Amino acid sequence: MDPTKSEMSLAEMDYKGAFSKGQTLYGRVLWNPEQNLNAAYKLQLEKVYLCTGRDGHVPFFDPTGTVYNEGPQYGCIQPNKHLKHRFLLLDRNQPEVTDKYFHDVPFDAHFASELSDFQSVSSMPGVDGFTLKVDALYKVEAGHQWYLQVIYVIGPESMAGPRVQRSLARRWKRGRRDLVDSDGRLMLDDSLIYDNEGDQIKNGTNMKSLLLEREEAALAASLSQTGASLGSAFAAVTLLLLLLS
């Protein structure tokens, strides 16, 4: 599957199989192509998280606690006792704080814009992506489901680049690897939770599970999207997983 091709349908792009050792995953984030926003706005990934729960816990993103009525939930973003492992794979503004290895096995994660073969993806209107080698995920015993969570920003095309970066730096008060303050409270931009009309820059998040080859076939049902895109007033955003090799 070639993620640099823009003419593929969503069904063609979304890999439904399991990932095996030695393979590379490509995550493609894009807004609904039916929305006519291409000329005006740009989508850019800011952070990519990876996590797995304890005792069958399924992380999900419900920051107001009103969707599932289980109180505020933040998926992989916030450390909590129900997560067995949690990693920050990519951070566009603080790459030095990301997790590079798990049990000495590299994640080898990259934004599409960092790889010459995929730079054309990040230049597509409303599209961005990242790559990840899955070998490190096999360091957890069988039966654990892995989840990817992305944080992205949507803003006017004219604001792409350093101006967006400075805006995000102000809003998220960067200076640590986690989006929590010294008291353990989550510091999320309001537009991740609420739809703030009039904001030029919107933040959003999306989650998806991924299946490893060794897992039971029954887990295939969990490949459906586990979290809705929140915080964007413009369009629904989809996280797709593609198999590169």
TrEMBL record:
Organism (species): Todus mexicanus (Puerto Rican tody)
The protein, known as: FRAS1 protein
Chain's gene name: Fras1
